[in-house]
Amino acid sequence: MNFIRTKIPDVVLIEPKVHGDDRGYFVETFRMDKLEKFLGHRINFCQDNESKSSRGVLRGLHYQLAPMAQTKLVRVIHGSVLDIAVDIRKGSPTFGKHVAVELTSENKRQLLVPRGFAHGFVVLEDDTIFAYKVDNYYSLDNDRGILFNDEALGIDWKVLHSELNLSSKDKAQPKLAKTNDLFEYGVNYYND
């Protein structure tokens, strides 16, 4: 299992080792001990989520405020997505910047999106199944979002705007500059 720091070092790309032969393959998709050793702190995942979507579905950009902030470990079981993590930590040298990674059932890559980041993805093929672990339960009171097409973020979603399918909630999210519900760079949001 390889852990690779992205251009925003707190966002980590994980490439599991796939063992394959004429019978199929075996892959270890998660090892808490290896992940915690790499990160240097504990993560207690408590909930697994899964969605099935058709091409063009865009979910995001979502996050939860502290004390219910979430780390997400995301992967694709079937199909493919373009996965996005946006730094929303005020004072960060990468504030407002993003990481974009294609996750597929073929490449088996995963992305670790830490607390302090907004997360979203767009589905690149029909019948895509997306799964993720979180280290805090869903909280309606702490649920927030950033507008997916905020020009200041400069995200190329790789799907024509006319082909996108979003919830009314995601279409109505504020731009990054218009929200005060953000994180502070340098604060440890893992003190729970």
List the topology elements:
Blueprint: E1 2-5, E2 12-15, E3 18-21, E4 24-27, H1 32-39, E5 47-53, E6 58-64, E7 72-78, E8 80-87, E9 89-90, E10 98-104, E11 110-113, E12 117-123, E13 128-134, E14 143-145, H2 168-171, E15 183-184
Parallel strand pairs: 9-15
Antiparallel strand pairs: 1-2, 2-11, 3-4, 5-13, 6-12, 6-14, 7-11, 7-13, 8-10, 8-12
Number of helices: 2
Regions with little confidence, pLDDT below 50 for 5+ residues: none
Tell me the strand order in the biggest sheet.
1-2-11-7-13-5
Per CATH, what is the topology?
Jelly Rolls
CATH architecture: Sandwich
Instruction: Tell me how many strands there are.
Output: 15
Structural class: mainly beta
What would CATH call the homologous superfamily? Jelly Rolls
Descriptive notes:
The protein is mainly β. It has one domain: Jelly Rolls. The chain contains 2 helices and 15 strands. Strands 1-2-11-7-13-5 form a 6-stranded antiparallel beta sheet, with no helix packed on it. Strand 3 and strand 4 form a beta hairpin. The mean pLDDT is 96.
What is shown here, in short?
This protein is mainly beta and 192 residues long. The protein has helices spanning 32-39, 168-171; strands at residues 2-5, 12-15, 18-21, 24-27, 47-53, 58-64, 72-78, 80-87, 89-90, 98-104, 110-113, 117-123, 128-134, 143-145, 183-184.
